[in-house]
Design a protein that fits this description.
0% strand, rod-shaped, mainly alpha, 109 residues
Length: 109
Amino acid sequence: MGEANSEEFCHCQGCLGKYTLLRDEENPRLAMFERRLPCFGCGIGWSSFLLGFVCPLIWYYATTLYCCKYYNRDPRERPGLAASAIAAVIFTAATIVTLSTILIIWAYK
């Protein structure tokens, strides 16, 4: 158990089969996950979600990114962008209900 093929190890003279490769030669897109996400490592989606509590318009920006499939560039962004989109929908519904209630109360005065 735990024995690996010799194909999974580096073949250079310095390593002599001791170390595994970090990058997948067959799928170079996997190497892009070695870099950090923008916005202090949280990513645009989660940063937008958190900043949206201060300024809800940021949720709508993240929702636009989610609908335009920005997460195809980096799939790690998808959960944060989806959370921002859900927050934007909830905020919109709460705003509509609040404004409707205010208008109904104002109309009956």
